[in-house]
């Protein structure tokens, strides 16, 4: 019995050595003591910790939400702040989300880097012959300096991810460079020159990015650059360096040296990544997943319900039964603490049972399926089998991705062709002599596909050699010049095909066609003679 219970005692002496002591409580004392038992039991329950309603974790204010996406998309083609925030999200989810990262990696892996430099052969006059040779050497040297294959891959994949690739050509005494610039320091100004966007450079944003402690050796010699001024002079165009020295806030990049590759610009200032439309269904999927995790945690709880007999409440419900409730709870709790227990419930316990969730998740599964389909389609991913109930087997919609790559490829060609003209002008050549670059179409990447397509166009459709050569990744005029030089060198006579069953007709008397004459089988020899006569 608890020490603080109020109990009355009465004593009766039976003999000299024995006294009978009887403890009793009045009705009021019983009620007071029952209240103390209730209070003690409730304190042991720790209801605020054990039996509180489960709530989800606090929401991060920076978490992706539908409202935030609606906020970003509002004026995203003209609002640089919103565009940069959207691109930061896309980079995050490409790194974090398996499906979005897969879609981006497919684009990058399937980006064609093979190209052909095409020169206008109508300009190949005797007067320009030497110039063309110098120009070809100049262009080849430029392509080597800027690592043209890597430039093509990076520009196409970056445009797909961020919607915009500000790009600047630099011609220095040491060679050539083509720089990709981040959108927060270089971006389309909204103005155009000859239809091409003019880049604007934010000098203050560049200063902020370059604020750092410059590393030096023990002899106090700079490892890379001595100061911000030296770094800007070495890595950025003359307009930017001049604006920095003049303490200007903005600089305009010469349209002949700067441009911006864009995708999905809708004729406005900025382009938007095709991946952006996948963010909305991704939010819903994340919410469904979070709710499902919370629900699964709740369903995994093992709840034991101990039911007491209703007789404890009395005939009219005037009793509370808190003391019995405490006793039954503590007895069961102690029993559950052991691995193997024998539990005999108090007489007032009616039953024990495990409570489990009976929730039906069919609706949630259907909802998740619908949004998963929308999400994957936004990424250019389709099901291998539309009847399957899971998303383990998916493939990439090649046609859609090829079209997207080719669209960006055309803009890359436009920018590079302009840079070739600028390159020739700076070297003192007529820009009209500049070549044009033709990057392979994405669908013609596979050699087997190119060969089959060329055969079909030339043999079945009877198309021109120029069309067929182009499909095979060759330039007709270049091949014509090479072929003429081979004929003059007599290479046809040197490389005459050897006589085989494939290169010799049936009328050839050399004996190399048909069955060998040395065959001694008379029946087969007679068959061959009669066969040739009937022919």
Describe the structure.
This protein is of the alpha+beta class. It is 47% helix and 14% strand. The protein contains 19 helices and 14 strands. It has helices spanning 27-45, 47-50, 66-73, 80-96, 98-109, 126-145, 148-162, 203-210, 228-235, 238-245, 279-300, 322-336, 362-378, 398-426, 447-460, 465-471, 476-488, 491-494, 522-534, and strands at residues 8-13, 19-24, 115-118, 164-172, 175-180, 186-193, 196-202, 250-252, 258-262, 303-308, 349-355, 381-383, 394-396, 436-439. The protein has a three-stranded antiparallel β-sheet. Strands 6-7-8 form a three-stranded antiparallel β-sheet. Strand 6 and strand 7 form a beta hairpin. Helix 7 packs across helix 14 (398-426) and helix 15 (447-460) packs antiparallel against helix 16 (465-471). The radius of gyration is 42 Å and the shape is elongated. The chain starts with 7 loop residues before the first strand and ends with a helix. Residues 45-61 and 383-396 have low confidence and may be disordered.
């Amino acid at each position: 019995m608890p020490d603080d219970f109020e109990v009355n005692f009465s004593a009766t002496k039976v003999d000299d050595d024995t006294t009978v002591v009887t403890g009793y409580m009045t009705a009021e004392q019983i009620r007071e003591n029952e209240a103390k038992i209730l209070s003690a039991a409730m304190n042991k329950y720790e209801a605020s910790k054990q039996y509180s309603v489960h709530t989800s974790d606090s929401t991060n204010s920076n978490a992706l939400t539908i409202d935030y996406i609606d906020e970003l998309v509002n004026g995203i083609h003209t609002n640089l702040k919103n565009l940069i925030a959207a691109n930061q999200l896309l980079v995050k989810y490409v790194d974090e989300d398996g499906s979005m990262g897969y879609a981006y990696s497919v684009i990058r892996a399937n980006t064609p880097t093979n190209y052909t430099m095409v020169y206008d052969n109508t300009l190949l006059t005797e007067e320009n012959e030497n110039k063309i040779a110098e120009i070809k050497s100049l262009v080849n040297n430029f392509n080597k300096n800027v690592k043209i294959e890597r430039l093509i891959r990076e520009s196409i994949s970056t445009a797909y991810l961020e919607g915009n690739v500000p790009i600047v050509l630099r011609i220095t005494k040491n060679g050539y460079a083509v720089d990709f610039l981040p959108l927060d320091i270089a971006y389309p100004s909204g103005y155009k020159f000859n239809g091409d966007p003019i880049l604007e450079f934010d000098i203050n944003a560049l200063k902020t990015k370059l604020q750092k402690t410059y590393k030096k050796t023990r002899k106090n010699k700079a490892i890379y650059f001595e100061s911000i001024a030296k770094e800007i002079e070495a890595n950025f165009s003359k307009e930017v360096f001049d604006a920095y020295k003049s303490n200007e806030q903005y600089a305009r990049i010469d349209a002949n040296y700067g441009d911006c590759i864009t995708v999905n610009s809708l004729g406005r200032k900025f382009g938007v990544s095709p991946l952006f439309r996948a963010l909305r269904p991704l939010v819903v999927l994340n919410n469904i997943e979070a709710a499902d995790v919370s629900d699964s945690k709740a369903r995994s709880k093992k709840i034991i319900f101990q039911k007491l007999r209703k007789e404890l409440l009395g005939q009219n419900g005037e009793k509370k039964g808190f003391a019995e409730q405490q006793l039954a709870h503590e007895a069961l709790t102690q029993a559950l603490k052991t691995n193997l227990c024998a539990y005999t419930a108090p007489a007032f316990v009616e039953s024990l049972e495990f409570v489990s969730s009976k929730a039906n998740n069919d609706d949630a599964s259907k909802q998740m399926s619908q949004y998963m389909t929308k999400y994957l389609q936004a990424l250019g991913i389709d099901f291998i089998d539309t009847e399957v109930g899971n998303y383990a087997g998916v493939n990439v919609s090649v046609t859609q991705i090829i079209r997207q790559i080719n669209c960006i490829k055309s803009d890359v060609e436009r920018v590079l062709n302009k840079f070739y003209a600028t390159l020739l002008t700076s070297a003192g050549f007529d820009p009209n002599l500049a070549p044009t670059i033709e990057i392979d179409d994405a669908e013609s990447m596979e050699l087997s596909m190119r060969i089959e397509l060329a055969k079909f166009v030339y043999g079945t459709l009877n198309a021109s050699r120029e069309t067929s050569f182009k499909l095979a990744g060759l330039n007709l005029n270049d091949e014509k010049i090479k072929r003429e030089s081979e004929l003059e060198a007599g290479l046809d006579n040197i490389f005459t095909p050897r006589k085989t069953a494939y290169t010799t007709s049936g009328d050839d008397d050399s004996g190399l066609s048909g069955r060998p004459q040395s065959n001694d089988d008379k029946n087969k020899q007679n068959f061959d003679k009669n066969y040739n006569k009937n022919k």
